[in-house]
Amino acid sequence: MNLIGLNASFQVVKTLTCINIQWNRKYYEPGEYALQMRACDWDTGIAYVYTPDRPETGMVEKVETEHTVKGDLVNVSGFFLEGMLNWKVTYPKHSSAGNLSAACKALVGALLTDTGVTVPTAADVGAAAMFESEGEFLGDATYAALKAQELGQKIRYDYDSGLLLYSIWQGADRSQSQGVNPYAVFSQDFGTVDSMTLTRDTSAYRNYAIVLYDGGSFDIDLRTGGGPKRILYVDTGMTIEDGQTQADFLAAVTSEARKQLAEYPSVLNIDADVMQNNILYGIDYDLGDKCDVRDDRLQLAFETRIIEVREVWKNNTHGITLQFGDKIPTAYQRGRA
Fold first, then answer.
1. Contact partners, residue 157, CB within 8 Å, separation at least 6
2. Can you tell me the distance from the alpha carbon of 296 to that of 70, in angstroms, rounded to the nearest whole number?
């Protein structure tokens, strides 16, 4: 992997020679990277790590030095440029009911003016949705809203123009149920996976909400085909604002309640070490793509998106691990239920 160190003005400082590279791309949250190199190969003027081999650019946010029997080393890490989104908060309050990608682009364009990030004119993707946010980190708010429509967002450094470009995108559908793109199947029987860990977790799952607001209440039922209610009590404390119609107010309350319900999902997570012989990364599949994943031992099959790609270069080897489905919640998050 070819890595180039850039200074704060995005000018080339030097090509980097690394002992260990970890490059973790993510679809529904900012990705991050970590590098290890000899101290003599680092330059303190480097502020960004760019590669023509991947669409991400890393921000130098943490630098650690260590002295070992093998010599002086430097460990460098940080978020990719999407981490800039969480430098800002959604204030003043944002409220919209139109196309979601248009709303996110407008927010980014308004709030990231001092970062150099620009929002090029592009066709809106996705659908209309109620989007309300106040006081949240911008990245957290937009990632969560976009995830509901299986959309991702990115900030790309264009090396030729020197611009930081924000965009909203969706990975390709490579499942066998469609006929537009070549399909990608991950399973041991297909010879595309070396090992696989499948996690299904319903310990925090909620499918029904009792929603309260100033002046009334209603229920939201997300069950399909019946079954027991797993209830979440949502006291929004929301009050109708001056000039707001009753319909818009109830839509905002519903949006807030659904946002809170989304924090209690039924989790399906698949972690797979991928073999690079029958199917090739960046050609046959990529981050965000919807693919078929099969656990042949349990005879389970899923259509699900690649939400994370973890790459490691070390000792002249390159390993790829994919994560599909939902991020596994931490113990603290599970305990909230």
1. 10, 48, 50, 57, 81, 163, 164, 165
2. 44
- Kindly report, residue by residue over 39-56, the tens digit of the pLDDT: 999 999 999 999 999 999
Amino acid 240 reads I
CB 184 within 8 A of CB 191: no
Residues 238, 256 contacting (CB under 8 angstroms): yes
Beta strand 62-68 pairing with 71-79: antiparallel
Cβ neighbours for 337, distance < 8 A, ≥ 6 positions apart: 203, 204, 205, 206, 264
Q: How far, in Å, CA of 25 to CA of 310, rounded?
A: 6
pTM, rounded to two decimals: 0.91
With 70 as the cut, is the pLDDT of residue 63 above it?
yes
CB count, 10 Å around CB of 19? Answer: 16
Nearest to 293 by CA among 211, 187, 148, 195: 187
Kindly tell me the burial class for residue 64, based on how many C-beta atoms sit within 10 Å of its own C-beta (0-12, 13-18, 19 or more): exposed
Tokens of 126: 């996705």
Nearest-angstrom CA–CA distance, 155 and 160? 15
The two structure tokens encoding residue 263: 């924090």
Using CA atoms, how far apart are residues 306 and 294, in angstroms rounded to an integer?
Answer: 14
- Looking at the DSSP bridge assignments, the partners of residue 281 are 285
Q: Tell me which H or E stretch contains 335.
A: helix 331-335
Q: How confident is the model at residue 232 (pLDDT cuts 50, 70, 90)?
A: very high
Place of tokens 């991020």: 327
Cα–Cα–Cα angle for 179, 183, 184, nearest 5°? 160
For 189-210, b where at least 16 C-beta lie within 10 A, e where not — what string? eeebbeebebeeeeebebbbbe
DSSP string, 96-152: E-SBHHHHHHHHHHHH-TTTTEE-------S-B--EEESSSBHHHHHHHHHHTTT-E
- The token duo for 158 is 């264009």
Longest distance between any two alpha carbons in the chain, whole Å? 70
Give the percent of the chain with pLDDT over 90: 89
Q: Which residues pair with 118 in a beta bridge?
A: 165
